[in-house]
Amino acid sequence: METTRVRFPDASIELAHGAGGKASRRLIEGLMLPYLANEVLAELGDAACVELPGTGGLRLALTADSFVVKPLRFPGGSIGELAIHGTVNDLAVSGARPLALVATWILEAGLPAEVLEQEVAAMAEAARHAGVRVVGGDTKVVEHGKADGLYVTTAGIGVVDPRVHLSAASVRPGDQILLSGPIGDHGITVLLARGELDLEADLTSDTRPVWPLVSAMIEAAGSGIRWMRDPTRGGVATALNELARQARVAVLLDEEAIPVRPAVRGACEILGLDPLHIANEGQFLAVVSPEHAEAALEALRGVPGGEEAARIGEIGAEPAGVVLARSSFGGTRVVDMLVGDPLPRIC
Domains in the chain, start-ordered, CATH in brackets? Predict the structure, then answer.
């Protein structure tokens, strides 16, 4: 059967297509969705939630993620840990308790066995800490020079908590926006680990499993949680722009309320970057109904690692599809999705 080609506007794939911003969205919506579209994929969530027939409404969440971070190891983490945390976090922000993962390794010929062993051990420890098992996978080896050491892909499955039904369509004006902790730590840490910035900073990646935080919030707010997302590539700005466009609402941020460490802010100022565009690997955003917001925030702050959780804004009706940030000086700016790829291979 002949397939009609779609009119994807870009002649070739560039680094920006993998950055999680506008080019990534153009790639997914312009080239992939026309061929693969279905009602589950159309949600474009961090995981696909599917109901199992004959189970009385049991829903499973499934997700997959690939990791190409450079360098392989950095302060606070490594590619083996990221491969666990990234996938279990995609499940967690879909309201699902992570159950099991599979891992696929693409290895470059000549990779020292010691390096591979370090990352397998890091993966095993991260999985143990996250309460999941790696139950399957695959390994492929390519010629020397055809890969940069190693790449990892993980896929995971989890059980969705019946109390939550997360969707951009559930978001309403007046809902409150919560953030689990400081942003930008991971992206700037990896950048510094590459030696690309002559800056001394006491920073480590925020990579961690967020299910303990999400679980506590579900216990406190349950069905009052409308939507969640972990702001990895493209950062908080991209995640909230996607929400604004899908839900056809305005996202109104209080910029002073957003926690950013001084070292991250300083590095961003030197590089001309916005902390809202920097990748995170251990934080998440949640939109919660007004009547549940305080309980949800208190629950987050009561979990180790959630002490700096903050209420950073609210949902408005207009201007629909736009993210606005209000500064301490009273001015307001439009916060757009990430354009280009200022920090490639960050996860």
Answer: 48-160 (3.30.1330.10), 168-334 (3.90.650.10)
